[in-house]
Amino acid sequence: MGLFEKTKFFYDGKQKIRAEIDGGTPYKKSDRWRDRYKKTDTYKYTGGQLTKWIPNSKLRRPNAVFGADPLLDLERQYGYMITAYRPPKSSASAEGEKVFTDLFEEIFKTNPKGNPKFFWNISPFSASDTNHSSIKSLINVPLRLYSDPDINWYIENRHVDFRDLNITDNASVINWLMSWGNKRAELITALGKGPYPFILRRVVQFGIR
Which of 18-27, 54-63, 141-150, 176-185 comes out lowest in average pLDDT? Predict the structure, then answer.
């Protein structure tokens, strides 16, 4: 089981001024939790714009963050996986998407279509959350996301397009952070770096050496 957080926001008019966060890692099929924690974050504004995010937490703030083709927007991905208005998928894509969508109901007991705001709180990024609250904590953190967006390979081998790929949300996150002044947010497109010796190409495979 992964990390879960429940956040309660407090507002002064339309400005969010404080967040009380209760989180931890639940044991599978149990009401018990491990690594339970609580924290309070405050937000400062200048001229109506968010200028400072002040965490009050015992959790260590990372010096930098990186991701290798990370899945970020659970709501967007789920919505496209269940739509019927798209070209027929390959068997590999169809099987993978069924496993993915079934896990939503098994783990969360809900899904992004029925409860989108729940997924705003647990997703690393949500395009439909116009405040993009989940990535505000990265405004001053160096971030690098790697992706191999070989769209021609996906069209020819999986019969899918950019809407199926994590690169869509990876690019959005970097774009938003850069617009907020994070000059150390980078998107690295490692096109064609997926081949392994003696086996078929797998475009989302990355090695750290």
Answer: 54-63
